[in-house]
């Protein structure tokens, strides 16, 4: 992949007290347009504008992204007086779940504002306008829903088919299937509206936005700071039910053989892939329970120290290629399960369940798994069966987003319960679209 890069100047400065940008929440600093975001509990990065961009696809998408970023980094003149992870030039990235189809995207914004450990900074590339007025956030109006490429009934059938396949196969222990839902809005969609609402309701998740893919993920695939690497594995889920409190649900989750087995598959998958890059790796023997508004998950935090090589520690994007997909979003055995997913779903996941996050020129970065998310799409013009234009309605002059959620299917999964689980996982984006905080 041949690239022609021009020299770019990146300048990072601390935002001091007294500056109007110091105390406002990061997401409130986004001016509109196509926002970029990676924010959790008030800290993280937001960006806008485009200094450089890569679109790639296919089985070499991780290698393409890595070589492009490494080469681009060599063409920066960096003036960074802050020196924290995420300072200097940053690429926001969202990679497709599968080799084909699906397009992976890296965007280097002209402006990034970040915060870590109470320190806030701004990075600019070139000479962008940083005094632009922040436009008001507009709600999307009326929201209406329709079947996506795999309806609820289609998902129920896909789960039934997956259970049959696993019982007949004998080797497959888990297949992760996804379901999508289309939402049309009567007004043009302001992506910041979703981000603000997601961050308000799910502050412990990473609220992300990259090239129209928006969401709030609870799952950290890989975080790297220097030689330290960390991952949070989530697999095994229960959701609120009438008459049950959170402690009762947590006990059910921790004592569920199905959920414990599903979680063990996912943790082992991640640890086995990550161990090859580490001199030390700590994998807790027992999972914890992560409690969110809409679901409870079994969670395991894996931490390691990267091994040294003649060229330094392995790069983050190269490690992502090795660990993705884990059993948490693919299945077990992962390669065979992933091969089966398109046959059972019959849809293109795009960047859903792929890695999403950011990387800086020092190799630091954070990548989650794109879960609880929606892809902004062009609203299609509706037509009657005879081909004439339909009467005005939701979607005309408004926006369209495609929502995703999924779950791990094992041989004893019950289709109706799996449908209920994905409906619970769709709630964060549905409520964000509807303005629930």
UniProtKB/TrEMBL annotation:
Residues 153-425 form the Chorismate-utilising enzyme C-terminal domain. It holds the Pfam family Chorismate_bind. Residues 382-401 are annotated as: Disordered. InterPro entries: ADC_synthase (IPR005801), Anth_synth_I-like (IPR019999), Chorismate_C (IPR015890). This is Chorismate-binding protein. It comes from Saccharopolyspora halophila.
């Amino acid at each position: 992949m041949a690239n022609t890069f021009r020299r770019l100047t990146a300048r990072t400065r601390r935002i001091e007290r007294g500056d109007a940008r110091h105390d406002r929440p990061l997401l409130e600093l986004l001016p509109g347009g196509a926002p970029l975001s990676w924010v959790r509990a008030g800290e993280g990065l937001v960006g806008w504008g485009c200094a450089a961009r890569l679109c790639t696809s296919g089985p070499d998408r991780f290698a393409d992204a890595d070589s492009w970023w490494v080469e681009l980094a060599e063409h920066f003149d960096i003036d960074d007086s802050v020196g924290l992870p995420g300072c200097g030039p940053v690429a926001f990235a969202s990679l497709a779940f599968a080799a084909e189809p699906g397009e992976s995207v890296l965007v280097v914004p002209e402006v990034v504002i970040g915060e870590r450990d109470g320190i806030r900074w701004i990075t600019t590339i070139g000479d962008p306008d940083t005094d632009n007025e922040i436009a008001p956030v507009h709600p999307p109006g009326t929201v209406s829903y329709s079947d996506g490429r795999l309806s609820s009934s289609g998902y129920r059938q896909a789960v039934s088919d997956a259970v049959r396949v696993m019982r007949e196969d004998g080797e497959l222990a888990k297949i992760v299937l996804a379901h999508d839902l289309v939402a049309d809005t009567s007004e043009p969609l302001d992506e910041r509206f979703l981000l603000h609402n997601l961050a308000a309701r799910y502050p412990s998740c990473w609220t992300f936005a990259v090239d129209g893919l928006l969401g709030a993920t609870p799952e950290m695939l890989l975080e790297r700071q220097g030689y330290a690497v960390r991952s949070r594995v989530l697999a095994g889920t229960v959701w609120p039910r009438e008459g049950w409190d959170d402690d009762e649900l947590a006990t059910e989750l921790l004592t569920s053989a199905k959920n414990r087995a599903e979680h063990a598959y996912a943790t082992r998958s991640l640890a086995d892939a990550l161990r090859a890059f580490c001199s030390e790796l700590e994998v807790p023997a027992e999972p914890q329970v992560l409690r969110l508004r809409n679901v409870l998950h079994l969670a395991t935090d894996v931490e390691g120290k990267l091994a040294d090589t003649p060229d330094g520690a392995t790069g983050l994007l190269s490690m992502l290629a090795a660990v993705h997909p884990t059993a948490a979003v693919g299945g077990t055995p992962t390669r065979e399960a992933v091969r089966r997913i398109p046959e059972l779903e019959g849809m293109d996941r795009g960047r859903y369940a792929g890695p999403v996050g950011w990387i800086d020129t020092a190799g630091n970065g954070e990548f989650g798994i794109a879960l609880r998310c929606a892809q902004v799409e062009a609203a299609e013009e509706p037509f009657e069966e005879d081909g004439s234009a339909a009467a005005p309605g939701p979607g005309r002059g408004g926006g369209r987003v495609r929502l995703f959620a999924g779950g791990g299917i094992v041989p004893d999964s019950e289709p109706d319960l799996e449908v209920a689980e994905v409906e619970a996982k769709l709630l964060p984006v549905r409520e964000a679209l509807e303005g629930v905080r």
